[in-house]
Amino acid sequence: MTSYAVILSGGSGTRLWPLSRSLRPKQLLPLNGEQTLLQQTATRLLKRVLPANLLTVTHQDHKFEVKGQLAELAPDLVHGVLAEPVARNTLPAIAWAANEIFKHDPEGIVGVFPSDHAIGNEDAFLAAWEAAESGALQGFLTLIGLTPTEPATGYGYIQPGEPLADARISQVTRFVEKPDYHHAKQFVAAGYLWNGGMFVFRASDFMQLLQQLQPQIFEAISAMDARDPAATYQVLPSLSMDYGIAEKAEKVAVVPAEMAWSDLGSWDSIYQHQAKNNAGNLIHGDVLSQDTRDSLLWSTHGLLATLGLSNVAVIQTADATLVCDRSRTEDIKQLVAQVQKTHPHLTETHLTVHRPWGAYTVLEEGPNFKIKRIVVNSGAKLSMQLHNHRAEHWVVVSGTATITNGDRVIVLHENESTYIPKTHRHRLENAGDVPLQMIEVQCGDYVGEDDIVRFEDTYGRCD
Hints:
This protein has twelve helices and 28 strands. By secondary structure, it is of the alpha+beta class. It folds into three domains: 3-262, Spore Coat Polysaccharide Biosynthesis Protein SpsA, Chain A (Alpha-Beta Complex), CATH 3.90.550.10; 273-342, no CATH class; 352-456, Jelly Rolls (Sandwich), CATH 2.60.120.10. A six-stranded antiparallel β-sheet has the order 18-19-20-27-22-25, with no helix packed on it. The chain has a five-stranded mixed β-barrel with strand order 6-9-7-8-10. Strands 12-14-16-17 form a four-stranded mixed β-sheet. Helix 3 (90-104) crosses helix 6, helix 3 (90-104) packs across helix 7 and helix 6 packs across helix 7 (215-223). It is globular, with a radius of gyration of 24 Å. The two termini are 42 Å apart.
């Protein structure tokens, strides 16, 4: 038996706005330590699978960031990244990864895990995963169920039934959608488990279930060219693994686990699962608080100062600040919907935008101009490109820049500059051993990020 793991790295994490944005969602953020949630998940899974046996399914918009974060852990992980052209919920994502495994190892045992969960007791998680594999070997679609710590209304529930021969595993009697508080209390008292979206199965068994229960998805995925999934994804339905397979299959089992689990789905969830000071405050970043208690105070940019507050969440970023009652953080999704209508860019990206070659930060922007700080990683280079509506002035702050400007190739050092005229083909490269930092001033009648024509790109972003 060979073990495989699949990480689901989708979702936008809107309830963690303004820190989480659609182009940098919560799984790509370090919310509870030095590593991002994605990196924590991969590190955990690598304790039981080889890097070559770990696949990650993400959205096309996040592909390069996901690859970059995984490469910091193990270079082989980047080869297992599958990028969906459009989001189609969890079942198509799982089906794609499972089919890739099935094609070369039908008997492989596959574990599927979300990328954005925090697990405090990794030994308990690994033991539950091992037990779930035992259920998969018996032909069961096996879930890892979480022992509830409260009558939560934000999770689905699983009712365990008769135990299997392996007493660690029980057959599933039924699944329950997210309940109200009254029913949640009854479920917890009756021994129900939270459904954390973790599945373990034999690859061949899953493909058989997919063919039986969702033949449209089975046929499309089986015929899909993994190098160009766009046409296939356009015809796939948006369907969850729970609704499409788990709730309809006959042989479904569950392994209960107590592993200090949290989906970190809201700011209050983050507050509950991290250390607080003597005043009951969770503090992150440059924060000064007086007479403030039981609050979450989080700053990624500048000083955050509070006075005379209680039970609030204050999250400050470079371009947006959220202040709300800590008990209302589950409702932020509705607030973000309003922000999307009035300030859509504030729900999509930060002032600092990560790219496969490094990052840029918008320092100031106005009519007909934009000023950026650009950081290019050692050995990286941007695409060969041109802009139809703007010219650019580049100043090297530190490091060495190799610049293609029209027909010329020049090398610039600290405090040297060049001018890129409108419609000139140009390219920026860092051939040095340290990061290259530059200031870019854009001038023109339009300075939007979509004014770019690429001719050659290391990262496959040409049209």
